[in-house]
Amino acid sequence: MINLNTFANGEFADKLNKTLLKVAENIRDTNTDAEEKRSITITMKFVPNKTRSMAGIIIDIKTKLADTEPTVTNLIMDRNMEGKIHIEEYDGQIPGQIDIESLCVNSETGEISDERIKEQANE
Fold it and tell me: Which distant-in-sequence residues (6+ apart) come within 8 Å of 71 by Cβ?
């Protein structure tokens, strides 16, 4: 019989071990569905010679891994003052509106400062 550790000069065992590691990494990846099934498919094609005394073998190892979960976000698209397209990720703040929570309040006087708004305008 054939020793699979030395089969094809050890390439079969080496490729299978690397494939097993890929499956394990995919299972441990928190961006994939934990319960989705993964698989390894080994295909061996035998190509016999005319006298049927020998056969070449083509070995293929393929995996079916879990896809990563999609990432969802929203983009705001508009034109700036020069008419050029401006794109930014929507973070819950509507462009052009004041974010009350970002205003600075002087704890001694209770005065509201718009320093944060000025910083945003300069960005």
Answer: none
